[in-house]
Design brief:
Elements: E1 9-15, E2 18-25, H1 33-42, E3 50-51, H2 56-66, E4 73-74, H3 79-91, E5 97-99, H4 106-111, E6 114-118, H5 123-128, E7 131-133, H6 140-175, H7 180-211
Parallel strand pairs: 3-4, 5-6, 6-7
Antiparallel strand pairs: 1-2
Helix pairs in contact: 6-7
Length: about 210
């Protein structure tokens, strides 16, 4: 049996139809939870919400220990309720990332802008998630954010590398005239530069591994 209002869950034990006692248990917090949430809030300015199927007392206890404001805590949130909260945040203009690894998280994962799960999570959570973290470590979320931002920066750089030279070449061709061979060299050169820029993180990673 489980008492949804308590901080722990209970299993009643009987032997030969005779009551023997009660086992109290609770899932411990991950060791890295506090550091992850602090980093997300302080360094990235991200609002962290807690959506849990646990009772209000347990949810408040966890939120307080992790520094999550109580008005961003939703207790006794089952699958449909989690999905509803994600949709409400959408309607409020928020970009929502949802982290979950259980069967009851799959609906909310599907509605989130970015859904994150773990390789050790349920099959449906892994299939639904946009990002699957191979190690069972919450701090990998920060690495995933860093990779995503680096990728976005590379895309912006590559667009600039391709578009800017070609706009210049087009302007020269329509005003003072431009040798077709030079125009071709500019076009192909910008494409090669963008391709080389895309390989830069891989080269840097291999270089860093060589240093260690």
């Amino acid at each position: 049996c489980a008492d949804s209002q308590s901080r722990c869950q209970e299993i009643y034990v009987a032997c030969d139809r005779q009551f023997q006692g009660v086992l109290h248990y609770t899932d411990p917090l991950r060791a890295e939870s506090d550091r992850l949430i602090h980093t997300l809030q302080e360094q990235y300015g991200i609002e962290v919400y807690l959506l849990t199927g646990d009772g209000p007392d347990r949810a408040t206890q966890v939120a307080t220990s992790l520094g999550i404001p109580t008005n961003q805590v939703y207790a006794q949130a089952f699958p449909d309720e989690k999905a509803r909260i994600v949709r409400e945040l959408h309607r409020a203009g928020r970009t929502v990332a949802f982290i979950g690894d259980g069967l009851n998280d799959s609906v909310a994962l599907a509605y989130a802008d970015v859904s994150i799960s773990f390789a050790q999570g349920s099959d449906i959570a892994r299939e639904t998630a946009d990002v699957v973290l191979m190690e069972n470590n919450l701090m990998d979320v920060l690495e995933a954010i860093a990779i995503a931002r680096q990728t976005r920066n590379l895309i912006d750089q590559n667009i600039a590398l391709v578009v800017a030279p070609n706009i210049v070449a087009l302007g020269l061709a329509t005003t003072v005239g431009l040798n077709p061979l030079i125009a071709t060299a500019i076009h192909n050169g910008s494409a090669i530069a963008a391709g080389a820029n895309s390989l830069r993180p891989l080269v840097q990673h291999q270089f860093d591994q060589g240093q260690t």
